[in-house]
Amino acid sequence: MNTATAIAETGTVNHPVVSSERWVAERRTLLAREKELTRLRDQIARERRALPWERVEKDYVFDAPEGLRALSDLFEGRRQLLVQHFMLAPGWEEGCRGCSFMADHIDGMNVHLAHRDVTFVAISRAPLAEIERFRRRMGWQFQWVSSHGSDFNRDFGVTFTPEEVARGKLHYNYGEWPFASEEWPGISAFCRDDAGNVFHTYSTYGRGVEVMMGTYNLLDLMPEGRGERDVDNKMEWVRHHDRYEPAPPPGACVRAMGRRYGVRSCPSASGTPRRSRSWLAPLHRACGWTARSSRAWPARCSSARRCTACRAARGGASR
After folding, report:
1. Where are the alpha helices (DSSP H) in 147-271?
2. What percent of the chain is predicted at pLDDT more than 70?
3. Hey, what CATH topology would domain 54-215 get?
4. 68: helix, strand or coil
């Protein structure tokens, strides 16, 4: 078996173990493929930069903590602006979990972006007071403004009307999709010339926003990868960073965790402690329940109010 080129993921159970010489040979084979990907990524980046621009004609106005600001003001004196279209609509109690996952990566890199002449800003439709409340909860420091009352979100393809949603097809990510939400994520890039003219240079949506998710890049290096189920919403495991349940200590026996999670016995037939994360929490990251553990678990889940899967199993609504 060529483990370097196999397409199917085998996980960490019964994974092939080979000699050091065989491992190095397999690794070199994969390295050649990785270099192909790196060169392709560089080529696509050049083609992205070569795309024509479109002039931004509308005078968009945003509500910021400093007051009302035009799109050109958001550049803060730099030539390039990177916008995260953050899903936080008026009246929402909290921002989208996936958008929050993206935003968790920003504060640390912001100083580096600034030194490459790039200003980052998140833009949402919610009123500024609602944005600020959630931003304080999350502890973020990056610039975040409100587009409430403007066409900005609609014009850049991330907000839709109830009528469009009811029609069953949204024009999102440069195509028609049967999505059932008025808000969707995206990233847009802008450039400003010496005369103050602003140009839209690039936008990406759907899985294109993964470029902001550095955590995914690291998970892709690991034996278990992203550990996501084959479902439409592969990010079902993601939580706001203040809503994760404490992780079991390394090497903890499932039996030792049983009192907390309602498991009566260790899954090992012999009773030997097991560390299999695939048994503990591939489906319910918040509570640890799996279909193979206990059908009755959702009824006893101490995290039922937080765990979407358990809420669904108990007939509760989830968003």
Report:
1. 152-155, 162-167, 214-219, 254-261
2. 73
3. Glutaredoxin (3.40.30)
4. strand
